[in-house]
Amino acid sequence: MKLSIKSRQLFWIIVLLISVVSCIFLGDIVGESVYYFIDGLVITFLSVMLFFNIYSLKVSSNIKIVISIGVIFRVLLLLIASFNIGGIGAFFNSSDPMDFLRVGTEYYHGDYHDYITNYPHIIEILFNIFGPYQFVPRLVNILCWYAGVILIYYSAGKKLYGILEFYLIGFYCLLPMQLWVTVSIMRESIMELFLMIGVVYLYRWHKSGKLWYLVIAIIVTAPSVWLHAGCIAFWGTAFLSFIFWNERNLKWKLVSIKSGVLIILLLMSEVIYEKVLAKIFPEYCLTLSFSIKDFTDRPYVVGNSDYIVGSGVVSSLSEFVLSTVKRCFYFWVSPTPNFWNSLKDIVVFCIDSLPWVIVFYIMYKLIKHKQDSFVINGVILILMYALVYAWGTRNAFTAIRHRDMLSGPIVMMIMYSIPDISQKIHIKRNSVANEYR
After folding, report:
1. What's the confidence (pLDDT) of residue 6?
2. Are 339 and 311 in contact (CB under 8 A)?
3. What is the DSSP letter of 304?
């Protein structure tokens, strides 16, 4: 969309007027404060700029509408959550977000006695810049989400026209848990953005074979791992991609020198640990031992808060392996009803799982058409995340939150792979694109 000089001037005048009116409105709600005036100005200005940017993208009108709805929902929910408009803001202010806010506020005031992950340090930095107002980290989450939209746009070659692209954009923009996370004081939006940046460099390594792209992918995802150790699953994905991707022939290869070395190291891991590492670093290494009971006998595993009640109690290695496989499957799709804790869990988990089932089917079609598809990295990432979180997820709500954090990276991997199968799955991108030019 191109604007003439007069149109641009009119646009900026409208932005300024809306910003001033909104600041006055916010001032009436929260009291007169120069910080609120400035922050209100920033919120409104950035919101309008998001809409301006959306309608400058080379995408179909339907996709523009979907992205716009995603922005509108998030801005409205931001105001509701921050100022408890209508008395329903408490839904976005549950225990986890409020704990992050509390500790972040303590850090802002110089009290560092408490610790719950590294995310409160991010809140502290934001408060030092914009003032101690809870809508600031919420706004940052929305901007991180929209940055993800732009990354998806570029991963699709700056052309989003087909039905498949429409579904994937809607999947990323309108997943209920994604809406909740981006307007709550949670870390997932920031973590997801860095993972999506990592996907960009993983793809560049996949196509060029240049190892330094893979190194960059590891480096740029380090903030995600810093915020939550579970994101190390991405590093595991990059490592396995390095092992099984032949960067010379640009094909997946299960049997190679690298995979052989990996198998040998795995077989010798116990010996290497006890005979080498334990002697070199005795103060950091304990005797290698593993107790299934110690690992699984925890309140959140065997208690009523578990989202697959009854599946966490194991007494042998074989039961542990089978239970882990089952929990990995349940982590991504809806468990059978007899393993549910409540009817609410069934409804929420099934509603959120159905879009993922469709995404899995799309990935299956991609791989079926081209076995060397980049989206195989997405399959590895999904498996790695399931393994990491299978025994560390306390309830259905937490499981949904963790897995939906991968919606952006998975959508990007699919977008990168679409050009190879556009005709196979009946996406007539060029013909559809011409209708919108």
Report:
1. 46
2. yes
3. T
Element (H, E) at 352: helix 343-369
User: Which residues have C-beta within 8 Å of that of residue 210, sequence separation ≥ 6?
Assistant: 204, 247
- Residue 306 · residue 395 · CB < 8 Å: yes
Tens-place pLDDT, residues 225-274: 999 888 999 999 998 888 888 777 777 777 667 767 777 766 666 566 56
- Report CA torsion sign: 390, 396, 397, 403: positive
Residue 277, helix vs strand vs coil: helix
Residues 175 and 373: beta-carbon distance below 8 Å: no
pLDDT (tens digit per residue) in 9-32:
455 555 555 555 555 455 444 444
Q: In 195-326, which ranges are E strands?
A: 245-246, 251-252
From 231, 95, 230, select the one nearest 103 (Cα to Cα). 95
Element containing residue 429 per DSSP (H, E):
helix 429-435
Write down the H helix ranges in 246-304.
257-267, 269-271, 278-280, 292-296, 299-302
- Burial classification of residue 403, based on how many CB atoms lie within 10 Å of its CB (0-12 exposed, 13-18 middle, 19 or more buried): buried
Q: Quick check: 404 and 397 in contact, CB under 8 A?
A: no
Structure tokens given for 136: 């600031």
| The residue type at 79 | L
- Tokens found for residue 16: 């300024």
Q: Please tell me the distance from the alpha carbon of residue 301 to that of residue 313, in angstroms, as a whole number.
A: 8
As a whole number of angstroms, the distance between CA 64 and CA 171 comes to 14
Whole-number Å distance between alpha carbons of 142 and 73: 10
139/128 Cα distance (integer angstroms): 15
Q: Note the pLDDT tens digit of each residue in 88-102.
A: 666 777 778 889 999
Look-up of token digits 């922005």: 71
- CA 288 centroid distance within chain: 34
CA 326 to chain centre: 23
